Amino acid sequence: MTTALEKDLSTPVPQSDRRGSHAMRWWVLAVLGLAQLMVVLDATVVNIALPHAQADLGFSNGDRQWVITGYALAFGSLLLLGGRLSDLFGRRTTFIVGLIGFAVASAVGGAAGNFEILVGSRVAQGVFAALLAPAALSLLTVTFTEPGERAKAFGIFGAIAGAGGALGLLLGGALTEWVSWRWVMYVNLFFAAIALVGAILLLAKHTATQRPKLDLPGTLTVTAALFGIVYGFSHAESDGWTNSVTLAFLIGGAVLLAAFVYIETRVAHPLLPMRVVLDRTRGASYIVVFTTGIGMFAMFLFLTYYMQQQLAFSPIMTGVAFLPMVAGMVAASTTVPALVVPRVGPKVTAVFGFALAATGMALLTRIGVDTAYASHILPSLILMGLGLGFALSTAFAGATSGVHHTDAGVASAMVNTSQQVGGSIGTALLSTFAATAANNYVADHVSGGAPSPRVLAEAAVESYTTTFWWAAVIFAVGAVVVGFVMPNKVPVPSEGEPVLAH
Asked: Which of 78, 82, 231, 415 has the fewest beta carbons closer than 10 A?
């Protein structure tokens, strides 16, 4: 039996009712892409600058992780709320508030005179990024409603989302080496200013047709659940899996997540309507983004360590070394959605992408203490870039396909949430595997006394190759799961939304 909602979702929306920004849509894409780049950059741009900030502000190694974790906790736990707020109060308004707040938080962080202000600014960045990121993707979703153009737009947006982490390493290295660590924060002011002007001039205003209602029980439950899960995995990285605090947060987060699902099936106006995630195309797309978040961590973190410690690359050279991966990702993301997906379908495209990524990770396990970049790293980076470009561009289009405009924000937030939680799991899980592998190698090769520098270097490489093998397995498992779950039909566009005429 067809419900009223299903009829509503399947009814075509007249072109006259679609976004008022439609005529300026490619400029809108540029504005949204710039904002997305700023958010993605901030996940990695600070990493390279962290030792310099630590030396300048004088905080301990134990405290250092909070500069990264503070951003991840606020961002990851508030994303679903941020996505729903953009549905309720207008994407344009939410996007602009997120931009201004992110810029102010970045300015405060750049001027920080002590550790507490720096961490506070990073938390504030995470809060406003949780408004900004879902609003950007949902604006893209309701702006591009023609299948051909939608494919190109999502390909470009997916390339930015995927390549931003590698570009962050390059930008962070350049700014730290040539100017100051503070400029990894200040640089956001330039991104935000350009995007803000574009948003005010180009984005059409949403017309509210009903009084917004917020699911307060669901909001509080899922925010606490995501906080517990992200913090639990972060705590596991530093204190281990059997630590009582780690277990309490992980178990508590899982229980709250189950309670959230129950609440969402009972309330009249759910924060995350189950129809959003139970659609097989959208559900499989979230799995793709989640799996990529886990696997990409191994490449960015441990390959950065390898190039800087074993190959003696400078921070800037390390960033440059990742550019072939960025090129591969951009090449795949900008061509696959329009040329490949319509011919072979999203399932085949995403599975093939994961297969390429798994092959690239497996090839990385050949590295040794004395191996070279061109022979042992470059081929893997190109394969990884192409593979992730295939998978992510398909997932970004599928994650918001066929969604009603009133759900576009929360559907978009699920993309960011999947990536953020995946990254947190990858950080803890693969760091644990790396530490265990290094310790076992030293124990097996040193019978007594201190290990030699050569043994320590070999132990470090052993830890890296172990994580690369695990990441290859994760991508392979992701390919199998997506192959079972995702239907092989081209995603249908979501509808536009009513807006005020310009």
From this structure: 231
- Tally of structural domains, the chain: 2
pLDDT surpasses 80 at 6: no
**32 and 109 together in one domain:** yes
Torsion (CA) 374, 379, 384, 385 in degrees, nearest 10: 70
Cα 364 off chain centre by: 23
Question: Is 496 a member of any domain?
Answer: no
| Torsion, Cα of 111, 115, 116, 122 (10° steps) | 60
- Is residue 10 in a domain? no
Q: Would you state the structure tokens that stand for residue 391, as one six-digit string?
A: 């998978």
pLDDT at 11: 38
The span from the CA of 85 to the CA of 258, in Å, is 22
Domain that holds residue 245: 218-266
CA distances from 250 to 13, 229, 430, 446 (A): 43, 5, 17, 36
Domain-located, residue 463: yes
130-141 confidence digits (pLDDT tens): 999 888 888 888
What is the total residue count of the chain?
A: 502
pLDDT above 90: percentage of residues in the chain: 30
Distance of CA 401 to the CA centre of its chain: 19
Measured at the alpha carbon of residue 388, what is the angle toward residues 169 and 140, in degrees to the nearest 5? 85
Q: For residue 257, which phi and psi values (nearest 5 degrees)? A: -65, -40
pLDDT per position as a tens digit, 351-380: 999 999 999 999 999 999 889 999 999 999
Longest CA span, the chain: 78
- Residues 49, 60, single domain; the answer is yes
Q: How far apart are CA 187 and CA 304, in angstroms?
A: 22
Terminal CA-to-CA distance of the chain, rounded, Å?
41
Query: How far apart are alpha carbons 20 and 205 in whole angstroms?
Result: 8
Is 195 in the same domain as 308?
yes
